[in-house]
Amino acid sequence: YPTWKRTLTRRAREAQMNRFCKAQAIQRRLEEIEVTFRELEQQGIKLEKLLRDEDSTPDDKKTQWMNQLLYLVQKKNSLMTEESDLMITVQELKLEEQQWKLDQKLRYYMNKEESLKTPKDHAAEKEILDQLLEVVNKRNVLIHIQEEQRLSEL
User: Fold this and answer.
1) DSSP string, 42-75
2) Which helix (H) or strand (E) holds 90?
3) Which residues touch 100 (CB under 8 Å, ≥6 apart)?
4) Using CA atoms, how far apart are residues 36 and 31, in angstroms rounded to an integer?
5) Average pLDDT of the chain to the nearest whole number
6) pLDDT (tens digit, 9 = 90+) per residue, 41-60?
7) Most exposed: 26, 64, 105, 154, by fewest CB within 10 Å?
8) pTM of the model
9) DSSP labels for 94-133?
């Protein structure tokens, strides 16, 4: 087994492990966001009840509650943006994994001696190349979406 093949295999395993760790971290963060959403919703419900039920409450107290409610809405919006970014990153990781698998299949056909390739091999190689191009285009679209979101936030 040549050194370059071992190096490629090792790097592929490292990349796969990095994707796996990143996916786990994203999953944990999505769960944290979900818990925070529930907490914010409970706080918002309490504040809304206070604002609706207390007619005799001084105006400065109502203003304070309204400011707290607006803060909760802002926090929820920022969490929704983060959640959206994470979901895009999850899709990106899936496409990256898919691209890696297609690369491996394509490498198999490309390493095969040209004289030994059957018409079926040529068709499979072309199909894999088309799929690979499609995956790359999907990743490009995701990157474009993320960039648009960042620009709109600014």
Assistant:
1) HHHHHHHHHHHH-SSS-HHHHHHHHHHHHHHHHH
2) helix 59-111
3) 12, 15, 16
4) 9
5) 90
6) 999 999 888 888 766 667 78
7) 154
8) 0.78
9) HHHHHHHHHHHHHHHHHHS-GGG--HHHHHHHHHHHHHHH
